[in-house]
Every structure is written in structure tokens, then in C-alpha cells.
Write a structure and sequence with these properties.
Strand 7 and strand 8 form a beta hairpin. Helix content is 25%, strand content 24%. With 182 residues, it is of the alpha/beta class. The chain has one domain: FAD/NAD(P)-binding domain, CATH 3.50.50. The protein has a four-stranded parallel sheet, with helices on one face. Strands 6-7-8 form a three-stranded antiparallel sheet, with no helix packed on it. Keywords: FAD, Flavoprotein, NAD, Oxidoreductase. This is NADH dehydrogenase FAD-containing subunit. Belongs to the NADH dehydrogenase family.
């Protein structure tokens, strides 16, 4: 008698999704369950070190943990979840094509994104610090302003939590001490 393995789908590759998928893949034998991770990226971003990337003290690849080879999942799909049909137990995923992924168990660990706050001017002149791309994006202008003959613009930092407060002091670290004012 053949037994169809249970379909376990984990949505999100942040800390919660990464750990859930890895643990489930470790404890559930493949003949009993197939664990599928759906993620917008191909890596876990070790976000506590994003301020180091933004300040230029770490390269982005040093805080990106690749999903392939790290999880032990049956399948990793890089794509965007478009919706969940809870009645029919299916996840709609856009990954080049539209897939309908059946599940028996679903783990929703989508994490968070940079939130636009209602502070005038913030969305036009500020950047988030949640992804590798944002860390690199912040670092590049900070670094290039050092080689400019004109003084860099005044920078202000807004945010809450440890990432915001630890990012601001590190930003001037890439600027030469005397050749650049900020």
C-alpha cells in the first residue's frame, strides 16, 4: 500500500520561515512529508548585520544565507505568493508562471517590509533597511559622497528599534575624516 506524503508549504524565508522549514525537513521523513518553501528571494538575509552592510563594513554576500543546501526541503520555489485559498488548501504562487500549490499543512511566515510612515518628506528622501538591496543602496551614496568635491548633504535618521539606532552611528565610518564634511 503506497502512502502519499503530506504536503507542507512554508511561505517566507526570514528567520521564522527558515527555521520552520529546516526543522520540519529534519524531523519529517521524506516518505511521510514533502516540505516546500516559497520565498521571494533565494536567501535568508541575516538582518541584524544590515547596518554593517550599509556602513560598508561587510559585503552583502556575507549576510546572505543561501536557501538551497541550507534547508533540506524537498523543493524551494522562488516566487511571490499571490493568494491562499484556505477552503481548497492551495497557495497561488507567481514564479515565472502561475502555480497552484496544494498543501496539507501551511506555515505563513512572511515577515515584514519597510513601512511608509506618515512623516512629511520621508518617502521621498528616506530609505528602508530590511533587505540586502536596501543595505547596498544606502551604502553606495554614502561612499560616493566621500569622493565628491562638494560637501555631502546633511543626513538624518528616522526609525525605531535596534536596527535604526545602531545604523546611524556607523554611517560616517566610510568617510575620510578630514576630506569630507557631513
Amino acid at each position: 500500500m503506497s502512502h502519499t506524503p503530506a504536503q507542507v508549504v512554508v511561505v517566507g524565508s526570514g528567520f521564522a520561515g527558515f527555521i520552520a522549514a529546516r526543522k520540519l525537513a529534519q524531523i519529517l521523513p521524506r516518505e511521510r512529508a514533502e516540505v516546500t518553501m516559497v520565498s521571494a528571494t533565494d536567501h535568508l538575509c541575516y538582518s541584524p548585520l544590515l547596518p554593517e552592510v550599509a556602513a560598508g563594513r561587510l559585503d552583502p554576500q556575507h549576510i546572505a544565507v543561501p536557501l538551497h543546501g541550507s534547508l533540506g526541503c524537498s523543493r524551494i520555489l522562488q516566487g511571490r505568493v499571490e493568494g491562499v485559498d484556505f477552503d481548497n488548501r492551495k497557495v497561488r504562487v507567481a514564479c515565472g508562471e502561475e502555480l497552484s500549490l496544494p498543501y496539507d499543512r501551511l506555515v505563513l511566515a512572511t515577515g515584514s517590509v519597510t513601512r511608509e510612515v506618515l512623516t512629511p518628506g520621508l518617502s521621498e528622501f528616506a530609505f528602508g533597511l530590511k533587505t540586502l538591496a536596501e543595505g547596498q543602496f544606502i551604502h553606495d551614496p554614502c561612499c560616493s559622497s566621500c569622493s565628491s568635491p562638494t560637501p555631502p548633504p546633511i543626513r538624518r535618521y528616522a526609525g525605531r528599534g535596534s536596527r535604526s539606532s545602531s545604523s546611524a552611528p556607523g554611517m560616517p565610518a566610510r568617510r575620510p575624516p578630514r576630506s569630507c564634511r557631513g
